[in-house]
Amino acid sequence: MSSKTADDGSGVSRYLPGDRSVSITEVTALTMPTVGWFLLFLMVPLLVVLYYSFLTYQSFSVVNEISTFAWVNGVFTSSVVHSAFVRTLGVAIVVTAITLLFGYPIGYYLRFHTGQIGGTILLLFLVIPFWTAELIRTFGWLPILGQNGAVNGVLMGLGITSGPLEWLLYSRFSQAVGYLQNYVVFMAAPIYISLSQIDDDLLDASETLRGDPIDTFRNVTWPLSKPGVAIGCMFTFVLTIGNFTVPTFLSGGSSTVSSLIYNRYSQGLNYPSAAALSITLLVVIFLFVFVLFRYVDITEIAN
Amino acid sequence: MTVTEIAIESLQKSFRSETVLRDIELNVEKGEFCVVIGPSGCGKSTLLKCIAGLVDHEAGTVTLNGTDADELSVQERDIGFVFQEFEETLFAHKTVAENVAFGLEQQDREFTEGEIDDRIDEMLSMLAIEHTKDDYPGELSGGQQQRVELARQLVRECDVMLLDDPLADLDYKLQKRMELEMRQIHRSLGSTFIYVTHNQDQALTLADTLVVMNHGKIEQIGSPTEVYESPATAFTARFVGDSNVFVADGTVATDGDAVAVDTSIGTLEAVPRNGSVSGGDGLYLVRPESVEIGDDDCDTVITGTLEGRTYTGETTEFAFSIDGLDREFLAVAAGRPDVGTVGDDLALGWDRTDAWYFENISATDTVTAADLVEE
Amino acid sequence: MANIEQTGANPEAEDVQRATTEPDRELTLEVDGLTKIYPDGTLAVDEIDFGIEAGDFCVLIGPSGCGKSTTLHSIIGNIPVTEGQVLLEGEDITETPTYDRDIGLVFQDFQLFPHMTVRENITYGLERIDCPPDEIERRVDDAIDLMHLEGLEERTPEELSAGQQQRVALTRSIVLEPQLLLLDEPLGDMDYKLQKRMERELLRIHRELDTTFVYVTHDQTQAMRLADQIVVMNDGKVEQSDSVENVYNSPATAFVSTFVGDSNVFRGELADVSENGEHALIETPLGSFHTSTENLRSPPSSLVGERIPFSVRPQHIALGPELENELECRVDDVIHQPGSGTKVILTATAEDGTETELQLKSFDRIDPAGTVTVSWSADHGTLLEETSVVDGIDLETDVLGE
């Protein structure tokens, strides 16, 4: 025990060569490709998008003239944009809540009720759909939920309903199902990891202090799994806002910000306006993540 | 003639803003068993890592067998290092014999297959784990795993072995057994051992030389007997062995060899140690085994109420409460003497030559007598 | 105050009192025929019985894998028991869920709730049993006072030292005033000096609280320093459950003698018994030795001709041929232990060449070398009727837990 305190702390350092300058260059060399990749393929394109948002749009073409037209008309004063943002954020919040409701029990089950092999198999089942492209997965719901789809077929065949259920597809329901299927893993996985950090003995400690299982969950398990919940919510929320396929193919046509961006350029090649909207969306997402991390210390998950 | 294997001069090391080692001066002779002890965070493990070259020091020199260690890489130093957390260091996919062979394969010298086998067999039987030769580390008990790690390092026959509390995680009985083995191994290998532990019993059992550290400084270097019987500072006296301590409030009367100091339980007499007596911050100390229960013929006699007793087979420890003292006062006697019943007021006496008075509290100036009482 | 009664002034009178069970002292915990077989078929605990008297400090010891952890978990109730009963204050709690048992538990690695302050950790249990707020306030303040935790109330566990964390863990359990407090190697990970201080602290708290403690450890010296009663376990069975004095001085088996304190164990044939029946002559490969028969359970004369082990404690072996039993040995190692004397490692060689290792302990500083004669009195030879309650064990390795 004594050796662990007040020493340099990092357990790895003792295996590294003593000469610090060597290890710094090694670390630098190892991170260079990643940093380079990000600069070239993330920062540069973003700057290009930002530049485009200040160009001027005139009847199906972009004029190389700096103006704030796209920002003022296309974002700040557009009521379509405002309502799209409100709807998008609303959908994201509801989707996050639903995903949490389904994701937490999965993470909990994986942590407490499966052995090593059972857990791996279950995780595999959750991951298998991801071997298919997102577009295909989304389209896959059409033959299931459609008017002549599998669900309606079964329901009518059994005589439970007389006609096809209309609200199954192109509705809030189908949207929720689409999001849930896409994102429940992103919610369950961090929660599972967070729950795995909780020592079984800590739960026993609660029980020996007269806490019944409900008390123990409310006062120990849940608070300690919050970092995982936060990360899962962040993933789901951000991915939902940015999602394009679900609102496009499973909703009844109500537009979200991402589908709006798509429309702006696909229906008029209005690049400046689409660019301005993209940057705005990015800032909104960034603000959300920033505020979330001010309140929840996700570094705890690493301990 | 003794040959200096390791010479450390004015060694200094800090992590960020915290100084971990200050002005370390230490010479270790060839073949010596040197044990470094001190409380957690005293820098003892860092000292080992400096010698091994696993961390850099910022000032001072480490000389290994006459060569400045700065010029040697970790691999060139010919040092074996055994960590406390052995589970992380054994190869789980190799058998015990293969793990031990790995130690040999890393040496510059080429060994024939037969030589490797012989040396593995010899080392495993020395550590009494020859029957585990073909097992995998996961199949072994903690004690066996630690011995495999020891074997892997020892088989290299390095000139210097550094051991960072290697027995700390073992069960008590096994620890005691391994302490005896460790002495045996050290003798038969003839290597220089530097061994770090927080367990002073183990240190006293193993050491030729004991190095006591506190706050990154060396408090004392000496044989276990020297350190125990003639501690250089109040810290050493308090850290090595048990003791009853009293803070002296500054009033000191000198009478020939002896001094009388005022404490919370009255005036106590002692022979001053190490340095002048000026009546400053001072600590009065008497070992529990020096206290005679029921003896009022001694130089110093106090009265205590017996609170409890603890029989450990070889000895019995008695705990007393004393007016003016908010801690228990301890006395130890061999066997199971009948001194009285709990609640009895008994005379507790000791000779002034068995007690100590220190004004030299610690090598670190900021440590006060009151700190040592709290420990 | 149990501590005092047991270690009172007249040990012999006490031994008698102990031997005949005292009906007036109530058993807080009774373990009756407890058996635990894990799903993989491992028999961890095999029909063990023991009882713990109210207010006692009971220590459960044994080598690793002896079943002490399984026993502990059965008492807490977080593993299902295969067979047998656990009774708390006479009430069968074998099937009661953990949170309904009036039992506290202190873990080796503390297991404080990391997201709560010290005070919240201590309050936790009281809130669970629906204690009124003003009573919670009072009991928490009293416990903080008893455990010297003033000033740490608003800290989080990671801001505390190991010693402080363990004090909080202890406080959190004792504030509930459980009928039984279990401690699972609570000092295992601590520095030597801190361990010593915490031991004294535990004794003080036990004296002041008058709660029954059950303490699990592998460290037999710690066990002896803390215990009123010791339960020695080996391989899923109880070797002996008795007072510290009896476990050390009248061990039931050779295993107990070797595991609790150091012991030199010899094995030989009981050749003769003295006329008054108080002494016996044992013929071993190392020679014939006289021993006391006091520790035998059956009449000494009935054992004549049987192979039987006996033990001699290292501190009872003296250098020089003054005492009745003499043995010539080679000195292998001399270990000076300042403050507690000298330990000498010796080897005795039998006629057939087999070697036996012996330990000698002197409270003085001695420096023997070469070949020496050691001796001990017949009264210090303790006959042990059984090697262990477990059949066919190798004492050497079993004691080390391997």
From TrEMBL, chain A:
Q: Which residues form the ABC transmembrane type-1 domain?
A: 85-292
Q: Does the keyword Cell membrane apply?
A: yes
Q: Localized where?
A: Cell membrane
Q: Which SUPFAM superfamilies match?
A: MetI-like (SSF161098)
Under CDD domains, the record lists: TM_PBP2
User: Which residue ranges does UniProt annotate as crossing the membrane?
Assistant: 35-54, 66-85, 91-110, 122-144, 150-169, 229-250, 271-293
Provide the topology term for how it sits in the membrane.
Answer: Multi-pass membrane protein
Question: Could you tell me the keywords of this UniProt record?
Answer: Cell membrane, Membrane, Transmembrane, Transmembrane helix, Transport
Please give a single GO biological process term from the UniProt record. Answer: transmembrane transport
Query: A cellular component term (GO) from this record?
Result: plasma membrane
What family does this chain come from, according to its entry?
Belongs to the binding-protein-dependent transport system permease family. CysTW subfamily.
Q: What is this protein called?
A: Spermidine/putrescine ABC transporter permease
Species name? Natrinema versiforme JCM 10478
TrEMBL record, chain B:
For this protein, the record's InterPro entries field holds:
AAA+_ATPase (IPR003593), ABC_SmlMolc_Importer (IPR050093), ABC_transporter-like_ATP-bd (IPR003439), ABC_transporter-like_CS (IPR017871), Mo/tungstate-bd_C_term_dom (IPR008995), P-loop_NTPase (IPR027417), Transp-assoc_OB_typ2 (IPR013611)
**What is a single cellular component term in the Gene Ontology annotation?**
ATP-binding cassette (ABC) transporter complex
Enumerate the UniProt keywords alphabetically. Answer: ATP-binding, Molybdenum, Nucleotide-binding, Transport
Give the originating organism: Natrinema versiforme JCM 10478
User: What is the top EC class of this enzyme, as a single word?
Assistant: translocase
* Presence of the UniProt keyword Transport in the record: yes
Where does the protein end up?
A: Cell membrane
EC number, UniProt record:
7.3.2.6
Molecular function in Gene Ontology: ABC-type tungstate transporter activity; ATP binding; ATP hydrolysis activity
**By what name is this protein known?**
Molybdate/tungstate import ATP-binding protein WtpC
What is the first-listed, main subcellular location in coarse terms? membrane
Functional description taken from the UniProt entry:
Part of the ABC transporter complex WtpABC involved in molybdate/tungstate import. Responsible for energy coupling to the transport system.
Family statement: Belongs to the ABC transporter superfamily. Sulfate/tungstate importer (TC 3.A.1.6) family.
Q: What membrane topology is given?
A: Peripheral membrane protein
How would you summarize the oligomeric state and partners of this protein?
The complex is composed of two ATP-binding proteins (WtpC), two transmembrane proteins (WtpB) and a solute-binding protein (WtpA).
Q: Domain ABC transporter spans what residues? A: 6-240
Q: Which reaction does it catalyse?
A: tungstate(in) + ATP + H2O = tungstate(out) + ADP + phosphate + H(+)
Automatic annotation (TrEMBL), chain C:
Report which superkingdom the organism of origin falls in.
Archaea
Q: Where is this region: Disordered?
A: 1-24
Give its localization: Cell membrane
Question: What GO molecular function annotation could you give as one example from this UniProt entry?
Answer: ATP binding
**One Gene Ontology cellular component:** ATP-binding cassette (ABC) transporter complex
- Going by the record, the broad EC class of this enzyme is translocase
Q: Name one Pfam family in it.
A: TOBE_2
Q: Where is the composition biased (Basic and acidic residues)?
A: 15-24
What is stated as this protein's family in its record?
Answer: Belongs to the ABC transporter superfamily. Carbohydrate uptake transporter-1 (CUT1) (TC 3.A.1.1) family. Belongs to the ABC transporter superfamily. Sulfate/tungstate importer (TC 3.A.1.6) family.
Described by its record, this protein's role is as follows: Part of the ABC transporter complex XacGHIJK involved in the uptake of xylose and arabinose. Responsible for energy coupling to the transport system.
Protein name listed in UniProt: Molybdate/tungstate import ATP-binding protein WtpC
The major lineage groups are: Archaea, Methanobacteriati, Methanobacteriota, Stenosarchaea group, Halobacteria
